[in-house]
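Before the break, one more example. Copy the sequence into your notebook; we will annotate it together after we see the structure.
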Amino acid sequence: MPGPFDMLAISASALSAERQRSEVIAANMANAETTHTDGGGPYKRKEVVFNSSSNSSFHLAFASAGNTLGRTAGSVHISQVVDDKTPPVMRYEPGHPDANADGFVAYPAINPVQEMVDLMGSTRAYQLNASAVSAAKQMIQQSIDILKS
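Here is what the structure looks like once it is written out:
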């Protein structure tokens, strides 16, 4: 049987995952013009991979065309941060210190517009999970109030 704090634990794990996702997006944006890294070559855009673990007993029921489908919800976490496989953008800048023999410089394949959209999505998901935490806290408090009376 699920405990009253399972909702809080699930939302808390999602809050942490979205915060980490925002940090990765911010690093991508900060390194959009980095042409040389310690590993050599331009910065590689990072992407996060979310994963869910079903260690919780919190049970969700979804209604679909009159049928009830039960699923067990679990905590959310980032299983890994991977490099984007998109090749770098080559710009002709013969005077640049990182230019190759043909005068081209490899820049990270980072689209600032896409990064901002990702950041907005991450921020919105964080806000929604914060609202879920607030609603869960309110339900727990109302349950305590009912038990007091």
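DSSP finds two helices and six strands in the chain. The two ends are 25 Å apart (CA to CA). Try to locate both features in your own notes.
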